[in-house]
Design a protein that fits this description.
The complex is a heterodimer.
Chain A (H helix, E strand, L loop, with lengths): L2 H11 L3 E2 H11 L8 H13 L3 E9 L2 E8 L1 H27 L7
Antiparallel strand pairs in A: 1-3, 2-3
Helix pairs in contact in A: 1-2, 1-4
Chain B lengths: L1 H9 L4 H18 L9 H23 L2 H31 L1 H8 L8 H5 L2 H15 L3 H25 L9 H23 L4 H7 L5 H14 L12 H19 L3 H11 L17 H29 L4
Helix pairs in contact in B: 1-2, 3-14, 4-7, 4-9, 4-10, 4-11, 4-13, 7-8, 8-9, 11-12, 12-13
Classes of the chains: A alpha+beta, B mainly alpha.
């Protein structure tokens, strides 16, 4: 799973968000390192909807423009859980090896 | 003003995608705009362009996975190898006819005619013939990957030859390369892609059950007979042959296949190798003005049709309920 996809799914764990809300949350979770751009975000959202990992929850009209809220599906939550576990195992391995090495434990 | 420019930028996307997400993307772009910003920034434009390409490719992939396209690929995976085999036979006949000439000259010290200069394209045609037979015998994947590999090797050879310069052993000029090699590269890509993207020649045969076999054979022979030299890997002009050959080929293809939806798609795929017709605009070309004008119109129509078809395929591939 690529990082933007991981961040989008993570953003939606806390509840339905609109596109701009996802961008702000992804920036917060990545500690300012990743700022999703709208072209990238909606290409990913479209793919995730087609795969059934994300679905549209409701629409509202703001300043005459449509704003749609997206939420995680059960399949999306399961896929995120698998990926998060995988990343966790890898990170734990790295931390364990570093602690046992001359480089010492990470900060 | 800024909103209007953002809207113009969003036209990179398929219309269906714009209807679905256009308002939301626009809202975010405007929310992120700097105070006083009058036009989209470079990064915004690059992001939208990248997103549009991604969406169009994904939509095209979905659309090409539809039964009509898969059937069109199956038809191409039958007709493509038949046509390539006919052209390989044509090459073999040409090669046999020049054998006495080769025997007389090639061994002579100092003669510019060598075995290599006469028969350098033989390995390519040999490979096409073998791969075509494999495809027609049902070895779809082997033939598909082999055809793509031969195409790739030809493309690399073409790029190398063009970088080395016009006077080399592979091609005599840029025009000759484009006339002779590029259609072969494209034909290989189309046939290889069709073999890998369909159920293969047997399915193509089922689909063409209503089409008389003799018409297919006559078409292949016709194509091979009226396009001498042009389809040799190296090539001298031969434009008049090319134009008349392509005209007959196109008429025959459309006449045989156009009544069915997958047949029309197969026609379009089988005409792709002739995209390099646009090179007929070249002032170095020795073609008669009327033929060049006809070719220019045909080339423009083919290009316009290709762009329209890609757009339509992408629109169809974007399905959202």
């Amino acid at each position: 799973m690529r990082e933007p996809t991981f961040l989008i799914l993570t953003a939606l764990v806390g509840g339905a968000l609109h596109g701009y809300g996802i961008i702000l949350d992804a920036e917060r979770v990545s500690e300012g390192r990743v700022r999703l751009r709208p072209g990238t975000l909606y290409a990913a959202l479209d793919r995730l909807r087609a795969e059934g990992l994300v679905e549209a929850e409701r629409d509202e009209v703001v300043d005459g423009r449509l704003r749609r809220y997206y939420r995680l599906t059960e399949e999306g939550a399961a896929a995120l859980s698998v990926e998060a576990e995988r990343q966790l195992r890898r990170a734990r391995t790295a931390v364990r090896r570093l602690a046992a090495s001359p480089y010492g434990s990470p900060a | 003003m800024l909103e209007r420019r953002y809207r113009a930028l969003l036209r990179c996307y398929p219309a269906g995608y714009r209807r679905e997400y256009g308002d939301e993307i626009l809202g975010i772009l405007l929310a992120q705009a700097r105070p006083g910003q009058r036009r989209p920034g470079f990064r915004e434009a690059a992001d939208i362009a990248h997103g549009a390409v991604t969406v169009r490719l994904a939509a095209t992939g979905r659309a090409l996975d539809a039964p009509r396209w898969r059937d069109a690929f199956a038809v191409v995976s039958l007709l493509g190898p038949v046509l390539m085999l006919a052209l390989a036979v044509r090459y073999a006949v040409d090669a046999a006819a020049t054998l006495p000439f080769a025997v007389e000259h090639a061994g002579r010290p100092g003669d510019v005619v060598t075995w290599f200069s006469l028969y350098r394209s033989a390995p390519i045609w040999g490979a096409w013939a073998v791969l075509s037979v494999l495809a027609l015998c049902g070895l779809r994947r082997t033939a598909g990957f082999g055809t793509l590999a031969v195409s790739g090797a030809l493309a690399v050879g073409l790029l190398w030859a063009l970088s080395v310069g016009p006077d080399n052993v592979f091609v005599y000029s840029v025009n000759a390369a484009v006339e002779g090699v590029l259609p072969l590269v494209l034909a290989g890509l189309v046939v290889g892609g069709a073999l890998l993207g369909s159920s293969g020649a047997r399915r193509g045969g089922e689909l063409l059950r209503g089409v008389p076999l003799w018409a297919v054979i006559i078409g292949a022979v016709l194509l091979a007979v009226v396009t001498p030299r042009v389809w040799a890997v190296y090539s001298f002009a031969g434009w008049n042959h090319l134009v008349s050959g392509l005209f007959l080929y196109g008429v025959l293809l459309v006449g045989l296949l156009a009544r069915r939806p997958y047949g029309r798609r197969a026609c379009a795929l089988l005409l792709i190798p002739f995209g390099p017709l646009v090179m007929m605009f070249s002032p170095a070309s020795s073609v008669a003005p009327l033929l060049r004008a006809i070719a220019a119109v045909v080339a423009a129509l083919v290009l316009f049709g290709a762009v329209a078809a890609v757009n339509r395929v992408a629109e169809r591939g974007f399905r959202r309920t």
